From TrEMBL:
Species in which this protein is naturally found: Aquimarina spongiae
PROSITE patterns linked: PROKAR_LIPOPROTEIN (PS51257)
Superkingdom of this protein's organism: Bacteria
Protein name per its UniProtKB record: WD40-like Beta Propeller Repeat
Swiss-Prot/TrEMBL keywords: Signal
Signal peptide from the UniProt entry: 1-19
Pfam family, one: PD40
Signal listed as a keyword: yes
Amino acid sequence: MKKPYFTICFLVGILLVLACNTNKKQQSSDANHEITKSRYFGQEPPGLIPEIFAPGIISLEGRYEHGISFSPDFKEVYFSANYEDGEPSIYYAKLEDQKWITPQKANFTKGKKVGEMHPMVSPNGKMIHFAAHDSFSLPHHKESVKTWYVQRLKNSWSQAKQLDSPVNDDFVFYANEAKNGDLFYTNVSKRKMYVASKKENAYPEVQEVGIGGFHGFIAPSQDYIVTNARNREDTLRKSDIYVYFKQKDGGWSKPFNLGSEVNSNFSETCPSITPDGKYLFFGRYNEEGGLSNFYWVSTKVIDQVRPK
Protein backbone atom coordinates (compact mmCIF):
# COMPACT_ATOMS: atom_id res chain seq x y z
CA MET A 1 0.00 0.00 0.00
CA LYS A 2 2.93 2.33 0.62
CA LYS A 3 4.29 2.14 -2.94
CA PRO A 4 1.10 3.37 -4.68
CA TYR A 5 0.74 6.15 -2.11
CA PHE A 6 4.39 7.19 -2.59
CA THR A 7 4.01 7.09 -6.36
CA ILE A 8 0.91 9.30 -6.25
CA CYS A 9 2.65 11.84 -3.99
CA PHE A 10 5.69 11.84 -6.26
CA LEU A 11 3.57 12.46 -9.36
CA VAL A 12 1.63 15.24 -7.64
CA GLY A 13 4.93 16.86 -6.67
CA ILE A 14 6.17 16.72 -10.26
CA LEU A 15 2.96 18.29 -11.52
CA LEU A 16 3.25 21.11 -8.97
CA VAL A 17 6.85 21.83 -10.02
CA LEU A 18 5.86 21.87 -13.68
CA ALA A 19 2.93 24.16 -12.91
CA CYS A 20 5.20 26.56 -11.02
CA ASN A 21 7.74 26.60 -13.84
CA THR A 22 5.02 27.22 -16.39
CA ASN A 23 3.64 30.03 -14.25
CA LYS A 24 7.10 31.58 -13.92
CA LYS A 25 7.65 31.38 -17.66
CA GLN A 26 4.27 32.97 -18.27
CA GLN A 27 5.04 35.74 -15.76
CA SER A 28 8.41 36.30 -17.44
CA SER A 29 6.76 36.40 -20.86
CA ASP A 30 4.14 38.85 -19.60
CA ALA A 31 6.84 41.03 -18.05
CA ASN A 32 8.85 41.09 -21.28
CA HIS A 33 5.69 41.95 -23.20
CA GLU A 34 4.99 44.89 -20.90
CA ILE A 35 8.59 46.09 -21.25
CA THR A 36 8.27 45.96 -25.03
CA LYS A 37 4.99 47.88 -24.89
CA SER A 38 6.46 50.56 -22.63
CA ARG A 39 9.31 51.06 -25.10
CA TYR A 40 6.85 52.01 -27.81
CA PHE A 41 4.33 54.32 -26.12
CA GLY A 42 2.13 51.42 -25.00
CA GLN A 43 1.61 50.24 -28.56
CA GLU A 44 1.42 46.54 -29.40
CA PRO A 45 4.44 45.63 -31.56
CA PRO A 46 3.51 44.84 -35.17
CA GLY A 47 4.10 41.65 -37.09
CA LEU A 48 4.58 41.45 -40.85
CA ILE A 49 2.02 44.17 -41.61
CA PRO A 50 3.25 47.76 -41.04
CA GLU A 51 1.29 49.89 -38.59
CA ILE A 52 1.29 53.61 -37.95
CA PHE A 53 3.53 54.44 -34.99
CA ALA A 54 2.21 56.31 -31.95
CA PRO A 55 -0.63 58.14 -33.74
CA GLY A 56 -1.53 61.42 -32.08
CA ILE A 57 1.75 61.42 -30.13
CA ILE A 58 4.60 61.01 -32.60
CA SER A 59 2.72 60.68 -35.89
CA LEU A 60 0.52 63.77 -36.08
CA GLU A 61 -2.01 64.73 -38.73
CA GLY A 62 -1.00 67.68 -40.88
CA ARG A 63 2.74 67.19 -40.38
CA TYR A 64 5.65 65.49 -42.13
CA GLU A 65 7.57 63.01 -39.95
CA HIS A 66 10.89 61.66 -41.22
CA GLY A 67 13.90 59.99 -39.60
CA ILE A 68 13.53 58.35 -36.18
CA SER A 69 15.89 56.58 -33.77
CA PHE A 70 15.91 55.25 -30.21
CA SER A 71 18.57 55.24 -27.52
CA PRO A 72 20.05 51.78 -26.78
CA ASP A 73 18.07 51.51 -23.52
CA PHE A 74 14.83 52.56 -25.30
CA LYS A 75 14.24 55.36 -22.80
CA GLU A 76 14.65 58.13 -25.38
CA VAL A 77 13.36 58.65 -28.90
CA TYR A 78 14.47 61.31 -31.38
CA PHE A 79 12.82 62.21 -34.67
CA SER A 80 12.38 65.07 -37.12
CA ALA A 81 9.18 66.67 -38.35
CA ASN A 82 7.90 69.78 -40.04
CA TYR A 83 4.67 71.31 -41.22
CA GLU A 84 4.14 72.11 -44.89
CA ASP A 85 6.42 74.93 -46.09
CA GLY A 86 8.07 74.95 -42.66
CA GLU A 87 11.64 74.16 -41.67
CA PRO A 88 12.26 70.73 -40.06
CA SER A 89 12.96 70.42 -36.35
CA ILE A 90 14.25 67.61 -34.18
CA TYR A 91 11.94 66.44 -31.40
CA TYR A 92 12.59 64.11 -28.49
CA ALA A 93 10.68 62.29 -25.77
CA LYS A 94 11.92 60.46 -22.68
CA LEU A 95 10.53 57.54 -20.70
CA GLU A 96 10.39 58.55 -17.02
CA ASP A 97 8.78 56.36 -14.34
CA GLN A 98 7.28 54.19 -17.10
CA LYS A 99 5.62 57.25 -18.67
CA TRP A 100 6.64 59.06 -21.83
CA ILE A 101 6.91 62.84 -21.56
CA THR A 102 5.30 64.87 -24.34
CA PRO A 103 7.66 65.25 -27.32
CA GLN A 104 9.40 68.61 -27.45
CA LYS A 105 11.93 70.36 -29.69
CA ALA A 106 15.60 69.63 -29.08
CA ASN A 107 17.01 72.78 -30.75
CA PHE A 108 20.53 71.36 -30.78
CA THR A 109 22.15 74.20 -32.77
CA LYS A 110 20.53 76.91 -30.62
CA GLY A 111 19.54 78.96 -33.66
CA LYS A 112 22.82 78.65 -35.55
CA LYS A 113 20.93 76.70 -38.18
CA VAL A 114 17.28 77.12 -39.16
CA GLY A 115 16.59 73.47 -39.89
CA GLU A 116 17.57 70.29 -38.03
CA MET A 117 16.60 66.78 -39.12
CA HIS A 118 17.37 63.03 -39.16
CA PRO A 119 18.68 62.54 -35.60
CA MET A 120 20.45 59.19 -35.35
CA VAL A 121 21.57 57.98 -31.92
CA SER A 122 24.87 56.08 -31.99
CA PRO A 123 24.84 52.39 -30.94
CA ASN A 124 26.51 53.22 -27.60
CA GLY A 125 24.08 56.11 -26.96
CA LYS A 126 26.89 58.64 -26.50
CA MET A 127 26.33 60.69 -29.63
CA ILE A 128 23.61 61.88 -31.99
CA HIS A 129 24.43 62.60 -35.63
CA PHE A 130 21.99 64.84 -37.47
CA ALA A 131 21.69 67.14 -40.49
CA ALA A 132 21.39 70.90 -40.10
CA HIS A 133 20.97 73.64 -42.68
CA ASP A 134 20.03 77.22 -43.43
CA SER A 135 16.60 78.33 -44.60
CA PHE A 136 14.95 76.50 -47.50
CA SER A 137 14.31 79.89 -49.10
CA LEU A 138 18.00 80.78 -49.44
CA PRO A 139 19.79 80.09 -52.76
CA HIS A 140 22.63 78.23 -51.05
CA HIS A 141 20.29 76.03 -48.99
CA LYS A 142 21.57 72.77 -50.47
CA GLU A 143 25.21 73.71 -49.94
CA SER A 144 24.43 74.43 -46.27
CA VAL A 145 23.11 70.92 -45.48
CA LYS A 146 25.85 69.30 -43.39
CA THR A 147 26.29 66.61 -40.76
CA TRP A 148 26.40 67.83 -37.17
CA TYR A 149 26.63 66.02 -33.85
CA VAL A 150 26.10 66.36 -30.10
CA GLN A 151 27.75 64.29 -27.37
CA ARG A 152 26.03 63.01 -24.28
CA LEU A 153 26.76 64.71 -21.00
CA LYS A 154 25.41 63.43 -17.67
CA ASN A 155 21.77 64.49 -18.12
CA SER A 156 21.91 66.52 -21.31
CA TRP A 157 23.73 66.98 -24.60
CA SER A 158 26.81 69.03 -25.47
CA GLN A 159 26.94 72.07 -27.71
CA ALA A 160 26.26 71.04 -31.30
CA LYS A 161 29.22 70.99 -33.69
CA GLN A 162 29.52 70.54 -37.42
CA LEU A 163 31.51 67.39 -38.17
CA ASP A 164 35.07 68.33 -39.20
CA SER A 165 35.55 65.74 -41.92
CA PRO A 166 35.59 65.23 -45.71
CA VAL A 167 32.09 63.84 -45.08
CA ASN A 168 30.89 67.45 -45.23
CA ASP A 169 32.58 68.36 -48.52
CA ASP A 170 29.27 67.85 -50.33
CA PHE A 171 25.50 68.05 -49.81
CA VAL A 172 25.05 65.18 -47.33
CA PHE A 173 22.51 63.88 -44.82
CA TYR A 174 21.17 60.86 -42.92
CA ALA A 175 24.46 60.02 -41.17
CA ASN A 176 24.17 56.95 -38.94
CA GLU A 177 26.85 55.12 -37.02
CA ALA A 178 27.64 51.41 -37.15
CA LYS A 179 28.62 49.47 -34.04
CA ASN A 180 32.27 49.60 -35.07
CA GLY A 181 32.07 53.41 -35.27
CA ASP A 182 32.00 53.76 -39.08
CA LEU A 183 29.68 56.49 -40.33
CA PHE A 184 27.28 55.71 -43.19
CA TYR A 185 25.56 58.57 -44.99
CA THR A 186 23.90 59.73 -48.20
CA ASN A 187 25.87 62.01 -50.51
CA VAL A 188 22.97 63.78 -52.19
CA SER A 189 25.27 65.67 -54.56
CA LYS A 190 26.50 62.39 -56.04
CA ARG A 191 23.28 60.42 -55.35
CA LYS A 192 25.26 57.62 -53.69
CA MET A 193 25.82 56.01 -50.30
CA TYR A 194 29.18 56.66 -48.64
CA VAL A 195 30.96 55.46 -45.51
CA ALA A 196 33.69 57.07 -43.41
CA SER A 197 35.79 54.77 -41.23
CA LYS A 198 36.40 55.98 -37.68
CA LYS A 199 40.08 56.47 -36.85
CA GLU A 200 41.12 57.93 -33.49
CA ASN A 201 37.69 59.52 -33.00
CA ALA A 202 37.79 61.19 -36.41
CA TYR A 203 36.59 60.50 -39.96
CA PRO A 204 39.57 61.46 -42.16
CA GLU A 205 38.55 59.52 -45.29
CA VAL A 206 35.37 58.65 -47.15
CA GLN A 207 34.58 56.01 -49.77
CA GLU A 208 31.62 54.79 -51.77
CA VAL A 209 29.65 51.93 -50.26
CA GLY A 210 28.76 50.60 -53.68
CA ILE A 211 24.99 50.70 -53.40
CA GLY A 212 22.27 53.05 -54.60
CA GLY A 213 19.33 54.75 -52.96
CA PHE A 214 18.82 57.45 -50.36
CA HIS A 215 18.57 57.48 -46.56
CA GLY A 216 20.69 54.34 -46.20
CA PHE A 217 20.74 52.91 -42.68
CA ILE A 218 23.21 50.29 -41.46
CA ALA A 219 21.62 47.55 -39.34
CA PRO A 220 22.85 46.95 -35.76
CA SER A 221 24.10 43.55 -36.95
CA GLN A 222 25.99 45.36 -39.75
CA ASP A 223 25.01 42.61 -42.20
CA TYR A 224 22.51 44.67 -44.18
CA ILE A 225 21.60 48.22 -45.18
CA VAL A 226 18.07 49.49 -45.80
CA THR A 227 17.50 52.35 -48.24
CA ASN A 228 14.70 53.94 -50.23
CA ALA A 229 14.79 54.30 -54.00
CA ARG A 230 12.53 54.67 -57.02
CA ASN A 231 10.92 51.42 -58.15
CA ARG A 232 12.17 51.06 -61.71
CA GLU A 233 9.78 48.19 -62.40
CA ASP A 234 6.72 50.20 -61.44
CA THR A 235 6.81 53.84 -62.54
CA LEU A 236 3.86 54.67 -60.29
CA ARG A 237 5.95 53.83 -57.20
CA LYS A 238 8.19 56.85 -56.62
CA SER A 239 9.96 55.46 -53.57
CA ASP A 240 10.13 51.94 -52.08
CA ILE A 241 12.18 50.44 -49.25
CA TYR A 242 15.00 48.12 -50.34
CA VAL A 243 17.61 46.06 -48.51
CA TYR A 244 21.20 45.20 -49.45
CA PHE A 245 22.86 42.24 -47.72
CA LYS A 246 26.55 42.02 -46.81
CA GLN A 247 28.35 39.33 -48.79
CA LYS A 248 31.22 37.09 -47.77
CA ASP A 249 33.72 39.10 -49.84
CA GLY A 250 32.75 42.30 -48.00
CA GLY A 251 30.68 43.67 -50.85
CA TRP A 252 26.92 44.13 -51.02
CA SER A 253 24.19 42.16 -52.75
CA LYS A 254 21.77 43.48 -55.32
CA PRO A 255 18.82 45.45 -53.84
CA PHE A 256 15.85 43.41 -52.64
CA ASN A 257 12.45 45.11 -52.60
CA LEU A 258 10.62 44.52 -49.29
CA GLY A 259 7.39 43.70 -51.08
CA SER A 260 3.84 44.99 -51.30
CA GLU A 261 3.15 44.77 -47.57
CA VAL A 262 5.87 47.31 -46.77
CA ASN A 263 5.85 49.21 -50.06
CA SER A 264 2.43 50.60 -50.89
CA ASN A 265 1.17 52.80 -53.70
CA PHE A 266 2.39 55.72 -51.60
CA SER A 267 6.05 56.70 -51.16
CA GLU A 268 8.06 55.08 -48.38
CA THR A 269 11.27 56.77 -47.20
CA CYS A 270 13.77 57.24 -44.35
CA PRO A 271 14.12 53.64 -43.09
CA SER A 272 15.82 52.89 -39.77
CA ILE A 273 16.24 49.84 -37.53
CA THR A 274 15.73 49.75 -33.75
CA PRO A 275 18.83 49.12 -31.59
CA ASP A 276 17.73 45.54 -30.85
CA GLY A 277 17.28 44.84 -34.56
CA LYS A 278 13.64 43.81 -34.12
CA TYR A 279 11.74 46.56 -35.94
CA LEU A 280 11.99 48.58 -39.13
CA PHE A 281 10.71 52.17 -39.03
CA PHE A 282 10.01 54.32 -42.08
CA GLY A 283 7.93 57.25 -43.31
CA ARG A 284 4.88 56.66 -45.49
CA TYR A 285 3.45 59.58 -47.45
CA ASN A 286 -0.16 58.46 -47.23
CA GLU A 287 -1.76 61.36 -45.40
CA GLU A 288 -4.00 63.80 -47.25
CA GLY A 289 -1.88 66.41 -48.97
CA GLY A 290 1.03 64.00 -49.42
CA LEU A 291 2.23 64.25 -45.83
CA SER A 292 4.10 61.43 -44.11
CA ASN A 293 3.62 59.44 -40.90
CA PHE A 294 5.92 56.98 -39.17
CA TYR A 295 5.19 53.30 -39.71
CA TRP A 296 6.88 50.27 -38.15
CA VAL A 297 7.02 46.56 -38.90
CA SER A 298 8.90 43.48 -37.72
CA THR A 299 12.32 43.02 -39.33
CA LYS A 300 11.16 39.51 -40.17
CA VAL A 301 10.07 41.14 -43.44
CA ILE A 302 13.78 41.51 -44.16
CA ASP A 303 14.50 37.89 -43.27
CA GLN A 304 11.83 36.85 -45.77
CA VAL A 305 13.80 38.28 -48.71
CA ARG A 306 17.26 37.31 -47.45
CA PRO A 307 19.01 34.92 -49.90
CA LYS A 308 19.20 31.38 -48.56
